[in-house]
Amino acid sequence: MSAPSGLVIDIVDLPHAVGATKDVRLRVPAPPGLGTAVIGTPEGSPVAVDATLTVLEDGVLVRATADLHVHGECVRCLQDLDEDRTVRLEELYHLPHGAAAKEDEEDQDVLLLGETTLDLEPALRDALVGDLPFRPLCRPDCRGLCPRCGERLDDLPPGHHHQDRDPRWSVLASLLAQTPQDDADSQGRA
Fold first, then answer.
1. 3-state secondary structure of 148
2. What residues contact 179, with CB distance under 8 A and at least 6 apart?
3. Which helix (DSSP H) or strand (DSSP E) does residue 61 occupy?
4. Which of 110, 137, 138, 135 lies closest to 36 in space, CA to CA?
5. Contact 66, 86 (CB under 8 A)
């Protein structure tokens, strides 16, 4: 069993009256896997969460913003991408006894309240992944890498190209390399 993340909120002091609220501020290191394979928040980088918990009849509504750093790489040229982001989330955490009916109704994952805690990590993960680009680019017009030398095309001079010939044409290339004298000699032998 893994250790709980710093995104677990104690709700023991949250009043049970509908409409009651609790404001929460968290400053924690990012848990592992917060993002996708291409782009996400590095594990251990700072995450600042400001949340308001509101008691509803069937659970607790969480409205929050999270300020975090995102790191990835351009899918075309592999250049590092770094930016700070603010992610907004609004999720309903259901009471455990009413969640089974909801899960069957909507056929989706339902966030549950613990007996004395509420874990923001799954909601933050869902909000961040939905906010991240599927194919991150350093620029929309990034030209990528040269297929021959592997250098970034944006860093190379205009008209960059390679003179390499396809080896399948080497016999024909040798015919082109013959001088007119070679042609005369070959005709004289005929």
1. coil
2. none
3. strand 59-73
4. 135
5. yes
